[in-house]
Amino acid sequence: MPEGYETVVGxxxxxxxxxxTKLFCGCPNVFGAEPNTNICPVCLGLPGxxxxxxxxxxxxxxxxxxxxxxxxxxxxxxxxxxxYPDMPKDxxxxxxxxxxxxxxxxxLPDGSVxxxxxxxxxxxxxxxxxxxxxxxxxxxxxxxxxxxRAGVPLVETVSAxxxxxxEQARAYVIELRGVLVATGASDGRMEEGxxxxxxxxxxxxxxxxxxxxxxxxxxxNSLRSLVRAIEYEARRQVELLEAGGAVTQETRHWDEDAxxxxxxxxxxxxxxxxxxxxxxxxxxVPDAALLEAATAGxxxxxxxxxxxxxxxxxxxxxxxxxxxxxxxxxLDLDQLVxxxxxxxxxxxxxxxxxxxxxxxxxDDARRLxxxxxxxxxxxxxxxxxxxxxxxxVLGALLEEGGDPADIAARLGYEALDTxxxxxxxxxxxxxxxxxxxxxxxxxxKVTGYFVGKVMQATKGRADGKVVSSxxxxxxxxxxxx
Amino acid sequence: MSLLDAGAAAVAKAVRAGDxxxxxxxxEALARLDATEGDLHCFQTVLGDKARxxxxxxxxxxxxxxDPGPLAGVPIALKDNLCTHGIETTCSSRILEGWRPPYDAxxxxxLRGAGxxxxxxxxxxxxxxxxxxxNSAFGPTHNPWDLSRxxxxxxxxxxxxxxxxxxxxxxxxxxxxxxxxxxxxxxxVGIKPTYGVVSRYGLIAFASSLDQIGPFAPTVADxxxxxxxxxxxxxxxxxxxxxxxxxxxxxxxRGVEGLRVGVLEDFVDDVSASCRRAANDAADALxxxxxxxxxxxxxxxRLGLPAYYVIAPAEASSNLARYDGVRYGxxxxxxxxxxMNARTRAAGFGREVRRRIMxxxxxxxxxxxxxxxxxxxxxRTLVTRAFDAAYERFDVLLSPTTxxxxxxxxxxxxxxxxxxxxxxxxxSSNLTGQPAISVPYALGDExxxxxxxxxxxxxxxxxxxxxxxVLEQAAPAEAxxxxxxxxxxxxxxxxxx
Lengths: 481, 497
Fold this sequence. Notes:
The complex is a heterodimer of chains A (481) and B (497). Chain A folds into 3 domains: 5-295, no CATH class; 302-410; 418-478, Orthogonal Bundle (Arc Repressor Mutant, subunit A), CATH 1.10.10.410. Helices cover 38% and strands 19% of the residues of chain A. Chain A has 16 helices and 14 strands. In chain A, the strands form 3 sheets. Chain A has a 9-stranded mixed beta sheet, with helices on one face. In chain A, strands 4-3-14 form a 3-stranded antiparallel beta sheet, with no helix packed on it. Chain B is of the alpha/beta class and 497 residues long. Chain B has a single domain (3-255, 381-496), classed as Amidase signature (AS) domain (Amidase signature (AS) enzymes), CATH 3.90.1300.10. In chain B, 63% of the residues are buried.
């Protein structure tokens, strides 16, 4: 961000709810089916059809509201009217000025808090594919519409303009995704479009408390696009202002390939959505059973999970790497770490192995037996396996499961006993008198040489750190200390 | 007298008893349809062979000792805005020409389940927008009493089919008077139930918060029977009340002794002398039968019409957006999607439908919403409160159904406002969601039938029907259909010749 300016971002995150059926009919809510197979008169908006609200969708929406600390209120549905071929009724049933969830907050891992203005229920549209050279509407010979997605339940979570950087926006989306997954409302898959983000971006002089004119940027299909688009758009707006121009309020499209945003439509030609209360639905007044379902079995939120790890690590006198903690929570591996620590694994080492090696294969890692994982960490911590060996055994464990001690034995990773290791070190010292002299003389750079030689001699069975400490002991002896 | 003229209940009774076959009854209805259709144009689609097959199934059930239901073998007609599985459903609009719904409306299912047999889909003002059936894209329906007159609308085809004796029972929809007004003009009984008593699932929406399906019949008893069949909760319509259909047949003979009847005096200056006289005579008849009759003014009732003509078009502008040429119905190609949408809609919708879409779009637009739609909703609340207050003093209210007898075809087509005034006495019930019935009560100065309207508080169908049955007894038989095509005079002249 250029000197003297501040970026202000508010995000609208659309989340497809993980219900069995659509929002207003009984069609299956699944991704990836043959086009136009999960459709019926209702979600096709055929003449005479009427919507019936999916109770489970309401429950999930209210769970999201609860998790975001929202006030949950009686709400009504409105029609948002505009013509688009993939919208079967040419209006979208959404919530307008009386949404189910209002006034919440989301605390990010760095401690910053983003206000949640609302989280409301609405229906998704179908999907249009433009057939022709570019895949975009211009130059297409015709378009195909798949209505499988039409009527899929969405919750749109609208943040306050509290976000101040692209990185914070990214952290917000990750945190919100964690919340959505934790509540059981969503599978959180951005790549399948079950999570979609629009960003309202403006800039202002640092220190100002007046909001600048914003642009809404759409088509942010990944966290990477989100970060790039915010950075680009903020820069574009500052350059405009610096050149004496003004930002026009408009909707802009993020072009991932070109790395730029360009205008979709300006305010003058903006749609007039002619919102009015949906007469085919009655007001949504949650009954006691629904309220209870929405708050029962409180979801374990990302912030709870961070706190839980911090508490366990504190109890063991260990320090947790913040980055590793975020990784294991995002990949749902934090429970594995905690379980391993519970049965005696070293906390720091368990976290490191989970966040680095296990995280590379998250699906396998989530199936890992925590006790086997704990045993592995213990073997490494006790020096029975070198770090390298430990990683190899973990790889095999992720692949096929089993007992890490058996795997180690099969791989020939018998732990060296101290005498054997010391003998190997002594042999290497004897073979390299010049290097030894330099080492004893204080040249730490040759440490790696000796460790490498010992590793070679022991065929990798030695633990590098133990080798270093034996070397240090020999040096001290040689120096007569 | 033919069994058909004895009414729906009598037909069902005879079919259930095996005294007559459903096939025979249906054949007669189809023959009458055939004989009158050229003059009347009640029907958009005739279901000859399909009706015969369904009738045969009814007879089969009777033969096997199964009860086909309370409407066994009764020929019925369905307004062509009620979805019928695999049968063209047009709303009398070019834009839906050829469209065959993949499902039945709830009322259609229930009617079939009760043993009724649909012989055809009836003509209407396009998308139920009109008061004369002249807005049909497929030509107007004529009033059986006088072929130069309109049958009223928008359910004109259904009203005329009953008035001509083609069927003893027909169904329509009432958004601002579209059942009661044609019932009055055709000399038959028509009921607009409480909003939510009959499922709207499968009724092609005009104005969702006002639309309600109801029956036409020559008698109050048959209309009541029909409402018992089609009414009751439906999980497919969220606005349909989760309660059983009202029980009406049992109240028919109860009389009006002690009932408090309010005679609405607010339309006195707006209606013809015949209509005024009919309402007054009806009031006298109720008083004579023991009711406590009093004049009452609900001035807000006169605000109903302007509020209605904002709310109904606003909802319609949204409900009719889906006819865009993309998925079904008419498509007129264009260079891009927007052009295709626009051309399709321009070609597919008639003048009145386009007019209302534009009015409704305007009323909902940013900057105008509050002055029009918002204001109309506030008026709606006022009207509802005013009627609720009146029902604290009265059990039912009585008024003319229409401002006049049936008018000449073409008389009001050039002046939409004058046409809209046809709904003056009926729209309030739609705004309040309360039930109302029109009962034929007199022949007017022009020799045409004039109905009176009994209105009741929400879910007051039983009281309403109870009163209507007394009025029916008091009314002269010659004010009521069925009539020979062209009216009794012409019919008698033909007989004499």
